[in-house]
């Protein structure tokens, strides 16, 4: 103080006066135990802190005094007070990401550093998220000056050993260990900290943006989260992010799967046939210069360009300002990032902030486009033009040959891909009487729908003239009481959609007392079809479920069987599941083919169909709509050839002679036993259609194997009715033993 007195007497006198005043308050020496002390003696405390809080900086610095273990700030600067005031009365300050356990460990670390002299760097990036008066979340990083805090052990404390300290240093996340070594109420922290806040909104928002963009496709709340981040960066409270893709081939903007995550404002409401961004000149500038383009006043642009579809659209959407930025890959503009606001707050000046975020947006869009393309190709391969692994080698061989010639600049035509001398195998597990079941479900739903309409009409006032429409209603109810004809469904649906529903809406508008009646009726309808969809839904869902169940068994088993000898396999879902298989030496020329592989594949096919029947018996009990199935195998021993049809992107039999096989497949499904009305296929039985005696003998042996395993039981030998262009077919119909255990899939040599 003497030095100060000699250098600045007025400063020394001021300090002496404060010190003399402080002597009147023993709490300043012995410790303040009640926070009310600061409120009662606010003037004195602010005088004591004057050197740490220069008045000239109160409007600039974000600063306050904090106390250990108290969420309480004293003597905040004017700027800090304004920030807290704008955050609202209900705002509660808390450190982002600092849970109670973590806070406890951090407090223990202060003891290690200050008491045990362990060299620890405790400067952690603590963040406070504080909204402003417009709801924009700003991020503040804060630093603690703890020079004015003392750490003291209490009477019951136990000094830690070097080994215990080392154990703690290696186990930051072990909260129980820290509580064991630093039991509660063993230490005392006295004093205060000077807390300094720094506005790190842009820095933190960009960091959050990177995190969100990494998980772009997995976050259900992505849209509001991205909008929140961009609002923090641009300080625009209602800012929204959009994206619109460009189709250069068709020269127009288009929607892509990305718009499932990020909306398009350019395409909001309608599609465009030309590239025009508020005016053609501005769009061309955007694409050619590949720089940001802003519209600070949409209304003004609309007045200047009244014929612009985009200007009109943005104006009608209530958008007042916007920024557009091109996404570029390989020197090509993929699309446009859109930032829009319903306030005049976006302009060419804050558009420069796009420099910060564009690298992350460009990388993300690049990744999304690559992911979309990969998924598209996968879907095409899986659902439309799948190339079975057994024949993939030949497609690859042809592709490599084609690429090789193009390097030499030859115009090389694609060669036909064929496989010759293959034995076909065909099988199906068909849903029995699916058309009858479908019609019955439709009929029940329509009957319920008409009954609901009848109930609604009864509740309506006699003021409404419903006589004529009631007569039609009765007519359609009587029509449904008979067998469902081909056009009955469409007649009833048209009656409901075109006459009943418009009438109900008209009555509802004329008399509000009927609102609830009509609303209750519509609640019982399917939202998409606006019809009753109860029994049909059960049927559709059950049919889909059965198809998937049966297909999964086939797909899984065929993958296992491919290990024996590769065979071509394809499977189709209809009202049931059917499959084609082809086996022969041309499928895999590098392997030695033996007829035993065909016999084993036939046994495998019979076993898989048995497995499907056995498992389905139990699965049927889980269905909402009970469906029966029947199974069939076609035996065809004459070798055929298959060719890949480039126009249809699938394999088909090659040549008119081989087409006979396809004719038989299509006609045996609903064929009958000769000289009877009985279908060849029956639930609980597998029908094996053949034409040659040696085929009969072979399948009797295969059936015997499964009879010995108690999977199959009695056999019937039948003749198939003569079909158009086909006669002489016969059938073995064998019953499935539903008491059998799971089928054994051993590989049998020499069947």
TrEMBL record:
Domain of life: Bacteria
Name the UniProt record assigns to this protein: GAF domain-containing protein
Organismal lineage: Bacteria, Pseudomonadati, Bacteroidota, Flavobacteriia, Flavobacteriales
